[in-house]
């Protein structure tokens, strides 16, 4: 499986039977081909979705769009409305390429995605995170933590072969709460931190501060936009031998 970090929370996943494009809000370079391309929008925030999300349809004709229901249907170009599915949390859909899409509720807006591709499970969190903010009332933060953990616990007993997970330095000393709980309670093969606002030092910081958690998975240290990874599925921790390739143009 090939994974390209595009920017922010946008990733391209290239599988055998289909390709997946997540949260591409300023366009993305996608490979040509006949395989189905499934384009996901986890919610309507401008750092996850825009009209440029639909640019993928200029390159691939066999394209489908899977958008959270908080996105205004009027933002979908007419030519793609029959190829667009709007989803809410707790839904399951079967799509071209023998792809199954399940949804979780976000702790912010929209949904998180669990996608089964080529028999493997790919998790994209969207804005599902433990948004614990220093200075906010304790009660509000506690409610957030309970909501987040309830959603993550729904994946207990499953294996996430690839997981794209929020690691946001704006949370300061609490930046690691969401990542910690996921890695402590769900089996994850490969982790790609995201939503870092171009400050990738938080990824290095996390690895240094949590060797126990990053050591039991393939924790990918992203350093910039366009980085490409050849992912060897079925290997974790010290067995991880994934190849990180040269950066590619993302648009």
Key features of this structure:
seven-stranded mixed beta sheet, 4 helices, 31% strand, MBL fold metallo-hydrolase, RibonucZ/Hydroxyglut_hydro
What is the element layout, followed by pairings?
Blueprint: E1 2-7, E2 10-14, E3 19-22, E4 37-41, E5 63-68, E6 84-87, E7 92-95, E8 99-105, E9 111-117, E10 120-124, H1 138-153, E11 159-166, H2 177-185, E12 187-194, H3 201-209, H4 211-214, E13 218-219, E14 228-230, E15 243-245
Parallel strand pairs: 3-4, 4-5, 5-6, 10-11, 11-12, 12-13
Antiparallel strand pairs: 1-2, 1-14, 2-3, 7-8, 8-9, 9-10, 14-15
Task: Give your account of this protein's structure.
- InterPro entries: RibonucZ/Hydroxyglut_hydro.
- This is MBL fold metallo-hydrolase.
- Helix 1 runs parallel beside helix 2 (177-185).
- The chain is built from 4 helices and 15 strands.
- The radius of gyration is 17 Å and the shape is globular.
- The chain has helices at 138-153, 177-185, 201-209, 211-214, and strands at residues 2-7, 10-14, 19-22, 37-41, 63-68, 84-87, 92-95, 99-105, 111-117, 120-124, 159-166, 187-194, 218-219, 228-230, 243-245.
- With 251 residues, it is α/β, with parallel strands linked by helices.
- The chain has an 8-stranded mixed sheet with strand order 6-5-4-3-2-1-14-15, with no helix packed on it. The chain has a 7-stranded mixed sheet with strand order 7-8-9-10-11-12-13, covered by helices on one side.
- Helices cover 15% and strands 31% of the residues.
- The mean pLDDT is 94.
């Amino acid at each position: 499986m090939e994974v390209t970090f595009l920017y922010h929370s946008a990733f391209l996943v290239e599988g055998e039977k289909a390709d997946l494009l997540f949260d591409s809000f300023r366009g993305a370079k996608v490979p040509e081909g006949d395989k189905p391309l499934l384009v996901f929008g986890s919610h309507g925030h401008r750092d996850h979705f825009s009209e440029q999300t639909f640019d993928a349809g200029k390159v691939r004709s066999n394209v489908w769009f899977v958008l959270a229901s908080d996105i205004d249907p009027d933002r979908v170009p007419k030519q793609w409305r029959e190829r667009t599915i709007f989803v809410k949390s707790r839904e399951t859909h079967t799509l071209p390429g023998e792809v199954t899409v399940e949804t979780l509720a976000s702790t912010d807006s929209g949904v998180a995605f669990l996608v089964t591709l080529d028999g493997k499970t790919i998790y994209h969190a969207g804005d599902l995170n433990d948004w614990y903010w220093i200075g906010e009332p304790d009660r509000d933060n506690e409610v957030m933590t309970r909501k987040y953990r309830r959603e993550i616990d729904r994946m207990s007993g499953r294996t996430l072969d690839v997981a794209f997970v929020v690691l946001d330095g704006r949370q300061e000393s609490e930046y690691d709460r969401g990542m910690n709980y996921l890695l402590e309670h769900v089996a994850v093969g490969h982790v790609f931190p995201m939503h870092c606002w171009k400050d990738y030092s938080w990824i290095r910081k996390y690895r240094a501060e949590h060797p126990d958690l990053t050591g039991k998975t393939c924790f990918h240290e992203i350093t910039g936009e366009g980085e490409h990874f050849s992912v060897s599925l079925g290997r974790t921790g010290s067995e991880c031998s994934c190849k990180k390739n040269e950066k590619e143009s993302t648009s």
